[in-house]
Amino acid sequence: MSTEQIHEIGRRRAWVIWLVALAVYVLAVFHRSSLGVAGIIAADRFGINATSLATFTVLQLVVYAGMQVPVGVLLDRFGSRVMLVGGLALMTVGQLAFALAESFPAAVVARALVGAGDAMIFVSVIRLVTVWFLVRQAPMVTQLTGLTGQLGAIVAAGPLAFLLHHLGWTRAFAFTSSVGVVLLVAVLLLVKDSPYRRDEVVAVKLRALAESVRTVWGNPGTRLGMWSHFTSQFGATVFTLLWGYPFLVQGLGWSAGHASTLLMAMTAWAVVSGLVLARLVARLPYYRSFIVIGVVLAMVVPWTAVLLWPGAAPAWLVVVMAFTTASGGPASMVAFDLARSFTPAHAIGRANGLVNVGGFTASLLTMALIGVVLDLVQPGGMDAYDLHDFKLALSVQYLFWAFGIWQILRYRRRGLAHLDRVHPGSIEQMRAGQPFVHPGIGTEGV
Question: What is the CATH T-level fold of the domain 7-194, as seen in this structure?
Fold first, then answer.
């Protein structure tokens, strides 16, 4: 496959393409988070209880995580532009169907479509960052991608609530779905897959799919990225999407307003910590996995203090715990920067898909296990849970943190040995503070 560069890398065209793709990602996060503010209305509209309402969130995450590997394969085959268009189409149809749905089964199908479209967006944007930006730019742009995308959650918390109040369910969700049509046109007009002209694309036939994914998975760098994502991301996801609000209000006795303010402040803190992490990763490429472990340990310490505190922990300690937990989001972005060092460009979609499975799998398992523990210690339901119940249930996070850190250390050692064997000089280059990006030779699988 021959390549010829026809556009400059890291210049104005790259930023325009990134901004359009980033807008799509913000919309995806908005759609993903939109049910949070509409939960009470949804329960009334569909006549469902809290367990059925939680099905929406869990289903979206299951669809999202389950589609990451096939999406990665399709991304390597068709490129980011096609995948962004496909994801936008699915999200737009799903959100419109959700606006019109009047029964619980129809609403579930609609949210599954939203989850399927959402699954195509983030890895497509990260692939654009990989090919359109210089090595020294990529860590910062990757962090900005993850952090700016969270604006979608803030928009879902504020403006969507306003629209629901003034327009009602159907018109509010129909209006938000129309944004996808505008962005669809922008993607078609402005986004290009690569600054290079390629004579052929990466064709992965169905019969070779399993072998293709097995090869990428066999690379210890892919597993290092996946376990880094697994260990750092789930804490913030579990806290902000499901269990944080009940823990703050029902467990610690905070007011609803204070709890909502803290959840929004976590997003702002994630932006600040993400910028710091991006600089660290760019300056210290050899220590990227240690940086991830450091962030995780910074979460564990205040969590331990909050859970062991006699009675309700003081507000300042809870804020420290929440902010360090929020730092896990930016830390999980480091996993995709790790994949750049171990994976040739033609396989980066599959690698990023596998990496992205990590955090969402951990989030689903943690959410479910916390619920199981709560039901075991207090069968009376949500209204009966007290602070002791929450503390006991939230302690399950330590299982995932400990297992994840062990796996990171395990695959860091294997990954460095792999790079040293296959790309002599790469380790010394990273030790010297110079980032190493895979030169694109070979498949790198085991």
Answer: Growth Hormone; Chain: A; (1.20.1250)
Against a cut of 0.85, is the pTM above it? no
CATH superfamily, domain 212-438, is: MFS general substrate transporter like domains (1.20.1250.20)
Give per-residue pLDDT as tens, 199-249: 444 454 555 566 667 778 888 989 999 999 999 999 998 888 778 888 898
Residue-wise over 154-174: b if at least 16 C-beta within 10 A, else e? bbbbeebeebbeeeebeebbb
For 124-238, strand residue ranges (E) read 196-198
Say if residues 119 and 352 touch (Cβ distance below 8 Å). no
| Spatial distance between the Cα atoms of 443 and 344, rounded to a whole number of angstroms | 7
pLDDT per residue as tens digits for the range 256-312: 788 878 887 888 888 888 888 888 988 898 999 999 999 999 999 999 999 999 999
Q: Is 213 helix (H, G, I), strand (E, B) or coil?
A: helix
d(CA 83, CA 77) in angstroms, rounded, equals 10
Locus of tokens 């609403």: 107
| Residue 209 one-letter amino acid | L
Q: How many CA atoms lie within 13 A of 190 on its CB side?
A: 19
Place of tokens 């398992």: 365
Give CATH 1.20.1250.20 domain extents, the chain.
Answer: 7-194, 212-438
